[in-house]
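Form 7-S
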Amino acid sequence: MDKEFENNRTEKFSFPIPGGKSTIFVKHDNRVYIQNLFGLTCGLAGNDTGAPRARGLVYLRTDTGIFDSNNLSLVNTAFDGNSISFVWETNDGKLKLESMWNLCTDTGVWSRKDRVINGGDKSVTVFSYMYRFVFSPGCYEIYSQRGIWCNENQGIWQKLHHGSIELSCEGGRTCQGSNPYLCIKNEGSNEGVAFHLLPIGNWVIRTSAHTASGDSLPYAVVEMGQSDKSLRMELTPGNSFELPEILFHQLPGGNIEAAAPDFQRYLLTNKFKDSKKTAPVVYNTWFDDFEFLDVDRLRKQLKIAKSIGCEVFTVDAGWYGAGEGDWFAQAGDWREKQNAAFRGKMAEFAEEVRAEDKGFGLWMEPERFGPQAPVVKEHPEWFIYNGSGFFYPDLEKAEVYDYMFNEISRLVDTYKLAWIKIDFNFELAIDPTDKEFYSYYKSWYNLLDAIRSKYPDLFVEGCASGGMRLDINTLKHNDAHFLSDTVNPIDTLRIYQGAMLRLPGGRLEKWAVLRSAGNGIPDYGTSVSTAPASLVTPGGATWESSVTVDADFSAAVALTCIFGVSGDLSSLPQKDLDCLSRYISFFKEWREFIISSVCHMLTPVRPKEDRSGWVAFQLQDMQKTASLLFAYRLNDVEDRKKFRLRQLEPECTYEIRFENNPGKESLIVSGEQLMNEGIWVDLPKRNSAAVISINRLSKFSK
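Output:
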């Protein structure tokens, strides 16, 4: 931090970051404001003198009034190294607003946490509390991502021409509708900022164009916080309300892909430093025969899963429910089926799995309860109806929290689980407590943490119809999270691209999902009588629209994060099982690297519908000593492509190994050459992949 006195009334504080633009704060009399944020000018030409609705750093609306920089008194400021704190009070001194800022200079990421404290003697109701950032009049573009089932992380840039662009989630699913992520850049300078909100329930991010004066271009005002659609947060005397944390950082040259590695580095260092450093290879039963669990069939899959190197065998939905109805209807009744699936003997099958030296895993959806679930009938006062046929637990009640904790623990203990998949396939709807699920999620996160603390060796996988709750906060409370319910390889490539802008990729999970279609699908020019067996993978989340696929391509797509397998392994030809086995062995060798790696996106993010071109990622360890290059040729006419690698040491030499093409000789190349000239990747077939390792050897003398 650099401090400068402009006069006896004005102080300026500059926070530079290596290779990036500074953030500049100004303290003038009884006001504090941002003059420049990563190259974007703030306020009115760097001053906090614009229109009232385009000033300050906070916005608060309560039943006692509306408060912002115009009627809040700044009572304390502290600039200490790379940390800042501000305290404002209302004029009557009854409400205090505290704002804590911290800059990670290694990555250029700011963290901000605010809270409002009721220092009066009467309760106060908070209707809205927003972080506020005001950018000078100009022309701006906004990048945001929508979240739809099997279409997660799909983003677009759009002009902030007039009015507002509002992002929010739906029904308590934090990534349904929109993701809690927004980028803004100035069209003229291409300077930009990315904002990430770490949700605690429903959230909102608004970007508004506010008219300045005369015929001037509008300000861009970004506000974000807990959703204020139905917020009625009561603060009793002495209590406080803490906003969800936000993180923000520079967009180098307005480029969203270029910002990803340092942001992931920040997350891994500051949010996931205590997370598991490894993950077992899982086989999941879902894409074999969905909810229809036949023990003899499962034994066949277990035998093959063992032979190719899987370490955990997870039984997905369909094992539970003593009443009538399918897997979806029976949620909440976590008793074993007596007339189907394991017929009450799943513990015996779990022992069979362990006898093969594999961990046993289980799927459940602890937050959703059907009306026929025994506990709903016994304790209806424990549950809240979501308006669509299901109930969710009132986790603010201690007895309900205890029930949930004990029920999950019972399953872990009864079946000696090594892995639990926790799903979330419905909306919570409207929060009757008027807190926008703030208290619900506080309790839910505490529950997940308590389970992980009690069972430190248990691997907890999150899922929410795929990625409908795949935000930073939720991921932090799980060991991994399923990327999307579509397992089509090209779908997952595109969805993964969007996820890399806001999440650490190594903590996500993808599966290679395969089954044999026999030899009834000949290649053009080949007779059915001589055609080899064809493999198919789901065209989305089901088998109805299956597409042919190469086992190597499917496995290579799944290899960029936590690797899993599903489908009918027992139907696969031996050569394809051998292919999966090689990829599983490679993942085991590299998994600690993959899980803790940052991702350089070597090709632009493209929408899921785009089946053309090439996609490439460079995964790199935190010490920048090793990289994995994953290159995918989609439906593209070019059969070779050059990729320039990032953040290598130019004076060092690197060994290049073509991991899924063992017949190709390794190379020794300088870091300077790899970054400046690049590396050629040859892929003669469409929908094929290359996996290339890059390991630093030593420095060389010029």
